Amino acid sequence: MEPFGYHAFIFLLMGLKWTLLLTAISFVGGGVVGLLVALARTSKWHALRVITSAYIALFQGTPLLMQLFVVYYGVALLQINIEPWLAVTFAFTAHASAFLGDIWRGSIQALPKGQTEAAQALGIPYISRIRHVILPQALKISLPATIGFAVQLLKGTSLAAIVGFIELARAGQIISNQTFQPILVFGIVGCLFFAVCWPLSHYGSRLERRLAVGTAGPR
Q1: How many other CB atoms sit within 10 Å of the CB of residue 175?
Q2: Where would you tag: which of 117, 123, 195, 219 has the fewest CB atoms within 10 A of its CB?
Q3: How big is the chain by its Cα radius of gyration, in Å?
């Protein structure tokens, strides 16, 4: 048994680093794919709407833990060796793309139809219309929900330990097994999660109130 000390704390910080890196990569990758999903869900093509609707339903209707299992162990059944890092990154990116795509789809559809109709009447091409008219307004509407999902995604990275990926929660489990001080170790792990998640949650709440005041009409 080893006492909890400096090296154990550094190991936890390394786990936090991988947690933040996994969250950032998954959020950015999921955001890129999610934007395409949102645009497809709001397009005039019925086939695209059906396909992306099924995509969203699949990832929202199944547990993230199961998705990790399918990606990591399912690929292994095909005789393909995949590193835990690649497996969890792919699974979390796909998971994030479904949720962000649905959030942004709702934000796009929340805009008054007159915005799109006016842009079409002015002869603005589709790409320019989306880039300069629709997305800036939809982004403003979706920011609080997007930040809230980012917090959930960060906390959800603890599930990556199930396939051997050493993030913050898994690092805490390893240190706890070495020191036999689970309350101390996981108390520190909880504090590290809180130190990252609370500022994001607080910022999202402030942003939501600010946007609510900014969009409130006169009474």
Answers
A1: 24
A2: 219
A3: 21
Give dist(CA 22, CA 130) in Å, integer: 29
Task: Find all residues with CB under 8 Å of 164, minimum gap 6, and list them.
Answer: 84
Alpha helices in 61-125 (DSSP H): 64-77, 84-110, 113-121
- List pLDDT tens digits, range 166-202: 999 999 999 999 988 999 999 999 999 999 999 988 8
Cα 211 to Cα 149: distance, rounded to the nearest angstrom: 18
How many of the other CB atoms lie within 10 Å of CB of 44? Answer: 6
Query: Nearest Cα to 120, choosing from 112, 129, 111?
Result: 129
Any idea what DSSP says for residue 163?
G
| CA pair distance 216, 219, nearest whole angstrom | 9
Question: How far apart are the C-alpha atoms of 114 and 189, rounded to whole Å?
Answer: 49
Helix 168-179 vs helix 182-215: crossing angle, to nearest 10:
160
Record the tokens describing residue 205, joined without a space.
């709440």
**Rounded to two decimals, what is the model's pTM?**
0.87
Pick from 88, 91, 107: which is nearest to 37 by CA? Answer: 107
Cα gap 169→12, rounded to integer Å? 8
43 in Cβ contact with 111 (< 8 Å)? no
Q: Enter the CATH code of domain 6-211.
A: 1.10.3720.10
